[in-house]
Amino acid sequence: MSTPADSAEATESAAKTAESDPPQPPPADLPEKEEKEPAGSSIAFTVTLIVLVVLALFGRRIFTSLFTGDGIRTWATMFVGVTVQALPFLVLGVLLSAALTAFVPASFFAKALPKHPALAVPVASASGVILPGCECASVPVSAALMSRGVTPAAAIAFLLAAPAINPVVLASTAVAFPGQPKVVVARAVTSLAVSMILGWLWLLTGKGGSWFKLPKNRHAEGTRKADVFRESMLHDFLHAGGFLVIGAAAAATLNVVVPREWLDHVASNLLLSVVVLGLLAVLLAICSEADAFVAASLTQFSLTARLAFMVVGPVVDVKLIALQAGTFGPKFAVRFAPATFVIALLSSLVVGWWLL
């Protein structure tokens, strides 16, 4: 058995040992392994690009050689025409959007916007003219703005305006509607109005609450700008390219398969045609750089109805609802999407009556 003297001696020995051995520094954090983008993304990007290029160069010849019916020929001609016209604007828009995400710091907006929230909303909306962004990129960009101190109202205004009134979109609209500058003006005015109305509406009703969560950056701090650019470009092109093909096919099918009497009946009713094309824009989820060419192909409908199609698409569609739900929370999406849809339709009716 140990005696009290032995215990005291052991304690003194342990103390001396602790004094003689200097404290070891905490182990340095092991460098985190850099997350590499899955090879599948690059493969999918390459495949999508090849498919779109082949469609652009040989699509009409391929389809018309495989199918000989007049309806199929009409479908193939319209499908390839929409794809070929929209593809250059789609690529340009994706490149500019990725550059904005990678190289323009979110702190730039916080410094440039007015301090007063109500004044920051129209300035943020107008900045969409010079800082283009695809719908796919607008949600993470607006999330980054909020995380850097920009008010949610101004960030939401930018989210809605950037994909709708940027130069690439307006240029594609001018090409899709040649000789009709009023369509370009109407689209810019309506989209700008929608973004500002939703921004101001947020100031009145949405200053927080359990149904809205502040987002986190999609890209970690310290990520190389070149990597951010590449990842954003791959992500946006894969999404936008796929939806472009779907949208072009749907527009061609609508013109060929749906009986002409049905289209004429819907098109003859202004309110019904505006609602129908608005819903079609939500379901097709076409990238804003390409939707004007699909709208131009829907010749049975009035310019006001086609304006609604072009205004609704960049601000609310199925992919945007999913992105908003994942970024800001499902409770935000179920409130924001219906409000945006209604305001976009009403604004299209007013501006269409005024300008078209």
TrEMBL record:
Organism: Kribbella caucasensis
Official protein name in the record: Permease
Domain of life, per lineage: Bacteria
Gene Ontology cellular component annotations, sorted alphabetically: plasma membrane
Keywords of the record: Cell membrane, Membrane, Transmembrane, Transmembrane helix
Record PANTHER family: UPF0718 PROTEIN YCGR
Region (Disordered): 1-39
Family: Belongs to the UPF0718 family.
InterPro entries: DUF318 (IPR005524), UPF0718 (IPR052923)
Residue stretches of biased makeup (Low complexity): 1-17
Keyword Transmembrane helix: yes
Lipid bilayer topology: Multi-pass membrane protein
Presence of the UniProt keyword Protein biosynthesis in the record: no
Primary location group: membrane
Annotated compartments: Cell membrane
